[in-house]
Amino acid sequence: MEQLISVILGVSLASAVGFRIFIPFLVVSIAAHFGYFDLNENWEWIGGISSIITFAVATVVEVFAYFIPFVDNLLDTIAIPIAGIAGSAIMLSTIGEFDPLITYSLAILAGGGTAALVKSATSTSRLASSTVTAGLANPVVSATESGISSALSLSAVFVPLIAFILVVLVLFLMFKLYSKTKRVIR
């Protein structure tokens, strides 16, 4: 059961990475530092003070950069592959004891795949927002994404099952939104 919870935790955090790369790492770093959960033994460094400071600075820079119209679109372009890598990394940091083949397969497919999927969808919605509103609505989109990333990260750490339900709900809503924005872009 503990292994299943660690997979749910990893997928939930990877989804949060798709919205903002550094918020989930900051939440995990703080939670690990205060002993709310154990990290994979090779990833215990995330709970250190220097990691918390680094992730906090990176989070502030990332969140504020997304409030600048058209800079946010540029960030989305480079963030899609980075989100896939970060999603894999955060999944590896939280996943339980599995065979290495299963561990890395889950990290790459479930963690990286989920993060890249979410980041691709958010990039598409931001592009639609930029197209329709000339970037004026992008700060609202950015604030929403940061809020969702924070909520998913916190719920993943403290109530993983609810976080997983939120992930399914968010993915469903993103699919619906993607379907609508796809029609707007055409």
Automatic annotation (TrEMBL):
Which residues span the membrane? 7-33, 45-67, 74-95, 156-178
Q: Which UniProt keywords apply?
A: Membrane, Transmembrane, Transmembrane helix
Q: Keyword Membrane, does the record have it?
A: yes
Keyword flag Membrane: yes
Question: DUF4126 domain: which residues?
Answer: 8-179
Q: What name is this protein filed under?
A: DUF4126 domain-containing protein
Organism of provenance: Namhaeicola litoreus
